[in-house]
Amino acid sequence: MTGRDRMVVAVLAALAILAAGWILAVSPERKKAGEVESKVQSAQASLAAANAKLSEAKDAQSRYASAYATIVSLGEAVPADQQVPSLVYELDHASGHDHVEFQAINAGGSSSKASLSTATGAESSGGFQELPFTFTFTGSFFDLYHLMDKLQGFTVSLHSGGVAVKGRLLTIDGMSLTPGGSSGEAAGGSTLTGTVTATAYVLPTGQGLTAGATPTGPAGTTATSNSSSSGNPSAPAVVKAP
Amino acid sequence: MRAVNLIPAEQRRSSGGAAGRSGGIAYVVVGLLAGIAVLALLYGSARHSISTREGEAAKLSAEAAHAEAEAAKLAPYTRFAALREERLATVRELADTRFDWAHAMHELGRVLPSDVALTSMDGQIGAAAASSATASSTTSSSTTTASAASSVTSATPPGSTPVFTIAGCATTQSEVALAMDRLRLMDGVSEVSLKSSTKAGSSPSGPSASGSSCPDSFNLEIAFEGLPTPSAPTGGQASQSATTANSETPGSAESTGANGTVGLR
Questions:
Q1: Does the predicted TM-score (pTM) go above 0.90?
Q2: What is the DSSP code (8-state) at residue A185?
Q3: Any chain A CB within 8 A of the CB of B55?
C-alpha cells in the first residue's frame, strides 16, 4: 500500500466517522429540535387564541349590563310571546295622538273581526316568528300619513348601527285608503278609512326574552335565573281603558 | 558537471511535500477532530434548544390551558353577547328592509296637482324581483308569507316592489296626464302606468253614474323601486345598545313616543 493509498483510506475513514456522527447523533437531535420548535409555535398559537377568547369573554363580561339592557329593550320590539294587549295599547295611543280613530285590529290578516285575545297563526320564519295583523283606522289623509310614520317609527335602525326602540317592530305589507269613516260618514268628506296589513314579530319559541339571563349574570353563571320565556318588562301588557 | 543529491530519497525534507513524513495522515486526523468538534457543537446546541423549547412549550401549553379554562368560565357572557348581536342585527335588518309608507304618502300629497283628487288608494308590497327573494306578497285579503331563505326573513324582503294603485278624479284628461308626470317625480318611483281614464258620461259605470261630480275618473299604478338590501352597520358601531340609541338624533325629524323615548326618522 503506497502512501497515497493510505491517505485516501484515512480520508474516507474520517468522512465515514463524521457522516456516522451526523446521521446517528446530530441529525436526529436537530430533527427533534425542529419538532419541538413547531410544537412551541403551535403552543404559542393556542395561547394567542385562548388569550383572544379570554379577552373577548372578559369584554363580554364587562359589557354584560349593557347587553342585558339591550336585550330587554329589544324585547319591546320583538317580545318573547305575542303581547297583543301591549300592541293594541301602542296602536291606540299612537292613533289618539294623531286624531285618528283606531277602529279594528284583526289577527292573522283576515278581514273578519276576530277576538284580540289570540293572535293565531304565527308563521315561523328564518329568525323570528311572524304575526300578521290587519288594522283599520279612520282619519284624514295627513293624519293617516302621520300615523304610518309612527307605526314604522316604533322601531327604527340608526346610522350608528344601533336600534331605537319605543314600541313593537312592525313591517307594513300593504295599505288601502278608501273614502268615508266607519260611522256612516259619506264618501266625499275628508275622512278616510285606512286598512293596514302589517306583520309583527315574536322571538323563536323556547328562546326566551333573555335566554335565562338575569340582571346579575347570564344563565350558567348564577344560581338564580328567574327570567323566563314569558314576560316583557318594558312593554306593559295592558289595554287602555275606554 | 552535474550535481548529485546524496541524501536518500525517503529522508529528504521535501520528499512528502506538505504531507510530511506521515504522508498527510496528521491532517486527516486534525480534520477529523475538527469535524467531530463541530458535530459535538451542533449536537449540544440541538440538545440545548430541545430542552429549552420543550420547557417553553410546556409553559405555553399550561398558560393556554389556563386561559381556556378562564374563558370557559366566562363562556355564558360570550354567548349572551352573541345573542345580543344576533338579535340586534336581525331587528336592524327587518327595520331596514321596510318600505317607508309615510314618506311615500308624503310624496304623493306633495306632487299631486291641486285639481286632482284621490278617491281610493291601495298599496301592496309586490313579490321580490330577485330570484333569491322567496317571499311573495299577495292580495289584501291574504297574508304575506315568507320562507326562511335567509337568516332573517322579512315580511317585505329586499327586492320586493311596492306598488300603489290609485283611483281619482281630475278636471280634464290633460290633468290626468299632468298627474302622471308629477307622480314620476315621487321619490323612489320607477314607473307610473295608466290603467284607465274615463270622462264623465262616456261610461255608464263611471263615477258620474253614481251621482258624484267627477269630470274625469282615472286609475293609475305607481311602481316603486325594489326594497333595498340592508347595509351593514359601520364598523364596531353595531355594538351600540338599543337603549343608548334612543338618545341619538341622526334623523331630520323627531317625535316623542308613547313612553317618552325619542323616535327618529
A1: no
A2: P
A3: no
**∠ CA B118-B122-B125, rounded to 5°:** 140
Q: Do B258 and A166 touch (CB under 8 A)?
A: yes
pLDDT at B19 over 70: no
Q: CB distance B258–A90 less than 8 Å?
A: yes
Residue type, A29: E
Grid cell digits, residue A156:
327604527
The DSSP secondary structure of B3-40, one letter per residue, reads ----S-GGGSTTSSGGGTTTTTHHHHHHHHHHHHHHHH
Count CB neighbours of A37 within 10 A. 15
**pLDDT tens for each residue of B243-255:** 434 433 333 333 3
Identity of the amino acid at B7: I
State how far the Cα of A130 lies from the Cα of A162, in Å rounded to an integer. 22
Residue A17 neighbours by CB under 8 Å, 6+ apart:
B32, B35, B36
| Burial profile A177-193: b = 16 or more Cβ within 10 angstroms, e = fewer | bebebeeeeeeeeebbb
Per the CB < 8 A criterion, the answer to whether B218 and B168 are in contact is yes
Q: Which region, left, alpha or beta, applies to residue A188 given φ > 0 means left and ψ of -120 to 50 means alpha? A: left
* ipTM over cut 0.90: no
Do B167 and B117 form a contact (C-beta atoms < 8 A)? no
